[in-house]
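Worked example 3. Consider a protein that binds adenosine-5'-triphosphate.
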Amino acid sequence: MIMNEPVAGSRYLELRNVTMSFNRFTALEDVSFDAEAGEFLSILGPSGCGKTTLLRVAAGLEKPDRGTVVIAGRDVSGLPVSKRNVGIVFQSYALFPNLTAEQNIAYGLTPRFCDRDRVRRRVTELLDMVGLVGSGHKYPAQLSGGQQQRVALARAIAGAPALLLLDEPLSALDAKVRSRLRAEIRQLQKHLGITTLMVTHDQEEALAMADRILVMDQGRLLQTGTPDEVYDLPASPFVASFIGSMNFIRDLVKEAPGIFRKGDLSLAADDSGLVPQGTRAILAVRPEDIVLNGSGGSRENALPALVRGMEYRGASYRVTLSLGVEGGCSTLEADVPTRKIRRLGIHENMPVNIGIPVDRLIAYVA
Ligand SMILES: Nc1ncnc2c1ncn2[C@@H]1O[C@H](COP(=O)(O)OP(=O)(O)OP(=O)(O)O)[C@@H](O)[C@H]1O
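Given these inputs, the predicted complex is written out as structure tokens:
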């Protein structure tokens, strides 16, 4: 099968300075990003932040007030969706109910393949790719949600599009089907080497599937990075709280390079000088980075704490800890392996010592 054979590593999709308003409401504000050929990008953000609008601009379903869209080196800003050669999968399967799975898939092919045998061969190949061999004769109503979304995916890739656009393709499915299908979509996308943009509000989905994640809020792009980069070094407290769980320790002041104080609580953090000395700061730490030591000590940021609550999660416990801090108390949540909880005999209302590794504390200007 012949897809657009993009050269890996080249800049393939480019959106530049895209701004889009609906009446007086600005849905996208000066958004720019690009994708390399074959890359899988995920657009992640809360409801109403402009994710779908951005995808629709890339597709040519919306015309922005300003900005350009380049696909495979060609400025397509003035072209409608029908001329952009994009494959789209929506959240609602959007299949034709009166056509079988095969006919739905063939629908995306007919203008290109006039030869009926070729269409049949290609449809068979696509059914095989999406794991639906033997179900081609069924109508959408006879298929499960996951199967319908497989048909929608086969239809979207049938014509070897230049770009695959997925708008929350898994959100209508139950958790088990969703996680299986996300692995399958990713495998197929890699196999075909097709540059893909997927909208999701599910951070787990974005972390699991994307080469890079674009985090948005209120029409703006806040951070672009690999899943690792966005998880390990979120650009702002908003990004930090949107992806994964994060503890924040607020109302600190940076009193010396790498040293932050709040009353009698003093914490060391690698902040690379991002917070000016003497200014108010927020420190952030992931629950899995807090080290619980029972009665033993810790080398880094050793603090006494009290176990306030414990929630069993199978492989780990989510432990709620309170730190006695002058002028009030700070609450932290720690994820501690179940084996360690049992070994140390941790229980509610137990005084413990915790440690926070210096390089796991992230400092932000408050
Ligand atoms: N056709 C429209 N007319 C007016 N306002 C619109 C239109 N389409 C979108 N908006 C507004 O633009 C903003 C961004 O919408 P968009 O659908 O892009 O958000 P989203 O991040 O995809 O949200 P969700 O995750 O809830 O689907 C929203 O406040 C929405 O109400």
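Take a moment to read the result before moving on. The longest helix spans residues 175-192. The chain is about 25% helix and 35% strand.
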